[in-house]
Write a structure and sequence with these properties.
By secondary structure, the chain is α+β, with helices and mostly antiparallel strands. It folds into two domains: 3-66, no CATH class; 80-159, no CATH class. The chain has helices spanning 80-93, 101-109, 112-115, 121-134, 137-150, 153-159; strands at 3-6, 8-10, 15-17, 38-39, 50-55, 58-59. β2 and β3 (15-17) form a beta hairpin. α1 (80-93) runs antiparallel to α5 (137-150). The protein binds zinc ion (ZN) (2 copies).
């Protein structure tokens, strides 16, 4: 086999098996960390979640690849764990006094710019820092934690 195997990931984003076809004995219906059901394909377009890459039946193991992808490679929709994290962030934003619905939408629209480096990343970081500055201490702490969990490593350093 040459190409990606399908990965199995729980809906909270814990990677279960990166080689569901090559190593089906490692598959699990539910996550052993959190108990949620596992998925192997995008709910929106049914494209398999990309797991280990095989070349002539051999794969190179990389620890970094155990991180669940955030968005579907085929249709660009967020996977369930990304949608959950964005929803949590959105719910926390509702607790920040004095923010309009528009400001909340804008802030959420910048989330993908924290999840990977884009031309808007630095702008997104400044925007979010200003926004978190408006929140009360405990809400601000929650927002910081949620953003750091979502952000790609290189952006984490820019955040706090
Ligand atoms: Zn899990
Ligand atoms: Zn998809």
């Amino acid at each position: 086999m040459t190409g990606y195997d399908a990965a199995q990931i729980c809906t909270n984003g814990h990677t279960i098996n990166r080689s569901t076809r090559m190593m089906p004995n490692l598959n699990k219906d539910h996550c052993t960390k959190c108990g949620q059901a596992t998925v192997t394909a995008c709910a929106a377009c049914a494209a398999p979640i990309q797991g280990a890459y095989y070349s002539d039946g051999r794969t190179s193991l990389s620890t970094k690849l155990s991180i669940a992808p955030a968005y579907c490679h085929a249709c660009g929709k967020p996977y369930p764990w990304t949608a959950l994290a964005i929803q949590a962030l959105s719910d926390l934003l509702e607790c920040v006094a004095g923010l309009s619905a528009d400001e909340r939408r804008q802030a959420i629209a910048f989330v993908p710019d924290l999840q990977s480096e884009t031309p808007r990343t630095h702008f997104a970081v400044v925007k979010w820092k200003l926004l978190v500055g408006k929140a009360k201490a405990e809400i601000a702490a929650g927002l910081q934690k949620a953003l750091i969990d979502l952000a790609v490593d290189s952006v984490k350093k820019l955040l706090w």
